[in-house]
Design goal:
Layout: H1 2-21, E1 27-33, E2 36-42, H2 44-97, H3 110-152, H4 156-164, H5 166-169
Antiparallel strand pairs: 1-2
Length: 185
């Protein structure tokens, strides 16, 4: 069976070429039905148009099948990646939700999953609100400190000098070591 298929596949380009370049002759088909004769004339030009049209349509169908095959494989690979991604998200949600490690983590209904996702969204929103309010508070403190520095007479240049020389005049990380000198006798 496979051998016949391969043989036919090898002969196919020759058949297509012969069908395309063949010189078709007019044909007359005689049909008899209940004693009546009917003649069907098919010119060589019509035969050539039909055969070439069939070759073109068959070729386009084969190209379309090949494109659909490649697209199908691409979609299957994309779907497999998406399923792996969903699995990773599912496991991440379960690991963030489970308080005790001994519980079987792959038993969660769809309703529980939706509730878990909503809880995580709510937690995320509360964290964002906290960060936003903290940023506002810190920026207000910065404005207040800057105005207090300006009112005290310290300029930015003096503050930078103080910051650069903090290790020289301020506390150091290591306590100063006493220098010992040798006494001569």
């Amino acid at each position: 069976m496979i051998r016949r298929f391969l043989t036919a596949a090898r002969l196919l380009p020759g058949l297509v070429s012969d069908g395309w370049t063949r010189q078709y002759e007019d044909a007359r088909i005689i049909l008899e039905q209940n004693g009546d004769l009917h003649y069907l004339n098919v010119s060589g030009r019509i035969q050539r148009i039909l055969v070439r049209g069939g070759i073109l349509v068959t070729g386009m169908m084969l190209v379309a099948i090949a494109i659909l095959f490649v697209t199908s494989i691409s979609l299957m690979m994309s779907r497999a990646k998406l399923e792996r991604s969903h699995e990773e998200v599912y496991r991440a949600l379960l690991s963030s939700a489970s308080d005790n490690e001994g519980v079987d983590q792959l038993t969660m209904s769809d309703e529980q999953m939706v509730a878990l996702a909503q809880t995580i969204r709510d937690r995320d929103m509360s964290i964002r609100r906290f960060v936003d309010t903290s940023m506002v508070a810190v920026s207000q403190e910065n404005v207040t400190m800057k105005s207090q520095l300006e009112s005290s007479g310290l300029t930015e240049k003096i503050v930078k000098i103080i910051q650069q020389n903090a290790a020289n005049g301020g506390f150091t990380k290591h306590p100063p070591q006493k220098k010992t000198t040798k006494q001569k006798k």
